[in-house]
């Protein structure tokens, strides 16, 4: 499973637990991007596992998708491929331990 984390070390390191917040899609006007299949792991919806980001129309941002697993690309969340984000969303349960190192 390839992933990309936060630019300039914005992804907090440590041990966390999957939180209750999850959903199919979100869009943040402040960040000017959204994503599919999100699951919260810190601050109840602030830090998420989710698909590569989308634009305001729900289209994947190709340049970020091409960098998945190669370099940090997020504002602090953890980007996954669409298939992996969907699997994570469907299978990783509330309370599951997450270690980010």
TrEMBL record:
Residues 1-101 form the L,D-TPase catalytic domain. The keyword Transferase applies. Keywords: Cell shape, Cell wall biogenesis/degradation, Peptidoglycan synthesis, Transferase. The keyword Cell wall biogenesis/degradation applies. One of its GO terms (molecular function) is transferase activity. The active site is at 50 (proton donor/acceptor), 77 (nucleophile). Gene3D superfamilies: L,D-transpeptidase catalytic domain-like. GO terms for biological process: cell wall organization; peptidoglycan-protein cross-linking; regulation of cell shape. SUPFAM superfamilies: L,D-transpeptidase catalytic domain-like (SSF141523). Pathway: Cell wall biogenesis; peptidoglycan biosynthesis. It comes from the Bacteria. PROSITE patterns: LD_TPASE. One of its GO terms (cellular component) is extracellular region. Pfam families: YkuD. CDD domains: YkuD_like (cd16913). InterPro entries: LD-transpeptidase (IPR050979), LD_TPept_cat_dom (IPR005490), Transpep_catalytic_dom (IPR038063). This is L,D-TPase catalytic domain-containing protein. It comes from Liquorilactobacillus vini DSM 20605.
